[in-house]
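Late entry, written up from scratch paper. The run itself happened at the end of the previous shift, but nothing got recorded in the book at the time, so transcribing now.
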Amino acid sequence: MKALVLAAGYATRLYPLTRDFPKPLLTVGKKAILDYLLDNMKNLAGLEAVYVVTNSKFTPHFQSWANTLRSAAEPPPWPVEIIDDGTDSNETRRGAVADMWYAIETKGINDDLLVSAGDNIYTFNLADFQRFFSERKSDIVLSFRITSLEKLRRTGVLQVDALSRVIGFEEKPAQPKSDLGCPALYLLQKSTLALIPAYLNQGGNPDAPGYFISWLYQQHPIYAFLMTRPYYDVGNLDSYHRICQQIETFGFSY
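Output as recorded:
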């Protein structure tokens, strides 16, 4: 298994903090947002490598971060490699799905792949996510119950059947058909990776990865793992400061 972190966005909603610095490397508590994800990845069995795809503007920041990891007293048990997608502005960005394929093609990834946005902090153990993947023997996505209609309208929304199979998906719907939000965390079978070019060639949205999931569940079965523990979504300045305060006050644990 390999892991791919999507970190090529420009986080314009967090300006001025992210005007010249990547959101996933902002500090929350005593470490970077992305460090929480990598620490959780240590719970995954058989993980062989982690790739972080970013843009040319922020590549030096991520390279410096990766160098610090390698020289730490307890470095990660697998290599962490930074991929520069060759773009340098919000206007010229490839988009998350196009970045997925760029990373897969560039590194010749041919393995089951954990795909995650680089700006979420999860409090559940990724080993449970991996176990669900092994049980279902199919692609899986993350789901989380959201009570706020306003929040549902700003995210991908899933519909599932009694077996947790995805039977519907809408990206940022005006009228959500369920209360299941879908954060950008997926575990894809290696055979699924080859479908990404077909999605893009058919005119699929290259940006928000939820649009790819909306297309993918119609190609073959996908199942949704229900996350019952809270997670932190660093979306804007207000949420960033609130999350910092919560973790600094109450601490953090999986």
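The chain has one domain: 2-250.
(Scratch paper discarded after transcription.)
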